Amino acid sequence: MDEPGADGALDTIELPPGLSLTRTTPEFTVENVPAGLLGAHRVADDVWGVLRVLAGTVVFVLEDSGARRLLTSDDAQVIAPGVLHHVEPSDDARFVVEFHR
Q1: Domains in the chain: ranges and CATH
Q2: Backbone angles phi, psi at 49, to 5 degrees
Q3: Is the pLDDT of residue 10 over 80?
Q4: How many CB atoms are located within 10 Å of the residue 77 CB?
Q5: Beta strand 28-29 pairing with 85-89
Q6: Backbone phi, psi, residue 57, to 5°
Q7: Which pick of 24, 32, 55, 101 has the fewest CB atoms within 10 Å?
Q8: Element (H, E) at 61
Q9: What is the pTM for the complete model shown?
Q10: For residues 42 and 36, is the Cβ–Cβ distance under 8 A?
Q11: Per-residue pLDDT, 9
Q12: How many Cβ atoms from other residues are within 10 Å of residue 17's Cβ?
């Protein structure tokens, strides 16, 4: 099965119905973003993520296909379970990640 967004249409990925928000990370900036988010990583198999950009820009990158999406303030990127990805925040970026089950 192709990973969601492998065709480059990262902005069309949606959360499946029936999920509930289970937690939200603290607000991240370029100064405090965990190193693990800057390298290839994935959310757990039964968890969906939503990257929400509050300010600045964050580039969301799928590792397998190389598809990239530039997110600006008030943009969100849904992240499917198990999909390898990383983020590239700008110097003025502020963002959070929500986890849904």
Answers
A1: 21-100 (2.60.120.10)
A2: -110, 155
A3: yes
A4: 22
A5: unpaired
A6: -135, 150
A7: 32
A8: strand 57-62
A9: 0.91
A10: no
A11: 83
A12: 5
Structure tokens at 44: 């757990």
What percentage of the chain's residues is helix, strand, coil (to nearest 5)? Answer: 5, 40, 50
Query: Which residue's structure tokens are 């110097």?
Result: 91
CA angle 94, 22, 9 (to 5 degrees): 60
> Which two three-digit tokens encode residue 59?
């580039």
pLDDT digit string, tens, across residues 44-84: 999 999 999 999 999 999 999 999 999 999 999 999 999 99
Query: Which amino acid, one-letter code, is at 79?
Result: I
Q: What are the backbone angles phi and psi of residue 34, rounded to the nearest 5°?
A: -60, 140
Length of the chain equals 101
Q: Which two three-digit tokens encode residue 57?
A: 């820009």
SS3 36: helix
From 13, 4, 20, 11, select the one nearest 99 (Cα to Cα): 20
DSSP conformational letter for 38 = H
